[in-house]
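Much of our argument rests on the idea that a fold can be written as discrete symbols. Part of our work consisted of pairing the sequence of a single chain with a tokenised description of its backbone. The amino acid sequence and the backbone structure tokens for this protein are reproduced below.
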Amino acid sequence: MTGSDTGKNLTHSIVHDLGTAIVTGQYTSERPFPIESELCDTYQASRSVLREAVKMLTAKGMLAARRRRGTWVQPESAWNLLDPDILGWMLERKFSPQLLLQFTQVRMAIEPAAAALAAEVADDGQKAGIAQAIGRMRAAERGKDDPLESDIAFHVAVLHATGNPFYVQFTELITTALRISIRLTNRYKGVRLASIPDHLAVANAIAAGKPERAAKAMRALVQEVLSLVTAAHAAPRRALPAAKRGATVRKTR
């Protein structure tokens, strides 16, 4: 590995460490951010490496810097919440039903419309990608694929089937939302696998070129999660016993 590669790896390691610390509240807009020399000592890094890391976090909206004033943490409202790194760091925070509710509300705005558009414009290859994801979900039921990854693959395939690069840009957001929501549905509903019939309804509508059916089927998928998350957010302590009692419920994602 070259010195340049080592420097890049150290820079990204510092970015990840500091980003996680900011998201988890170790550093906030009310608490002073460490000065450059302190961070250099902490990470045994050169000033150039440290400055590059700070520059990257500044580009994400997490830090701001000004001569004579130094560097400080920006409020969360200034962060680029669609940045995949920030989305990932948010997962390292203590679980937040409110955050999951917000993610799911965004899913409701995006995914039914994406399914409708996919039904209008998807080509054979894109439809095949959705069918392949359904196949992976079936394999997951037999223990031959990962339930989480196959479920995510389906929703990502629908975004890609729109042929619209703006929808595709939501891949990281949807993936992150699913990783959190599947954790919650597993915990509260006592199920591990997604409902293949519900996902198949979306896939079949897209394959048949039926935009309204596709949107309705996707809306139903997300609405069930939204209803569960809303209930958990309103009364989290009352949501868990049903799953613990082994209540019979529909599987969803």
Remarks:
- The first helix runs from residue 3 to 23.
- The chain has two domains: 3-78, 95-244.
- Residues 238-252 have pLDDT under 50 and may be disordered.
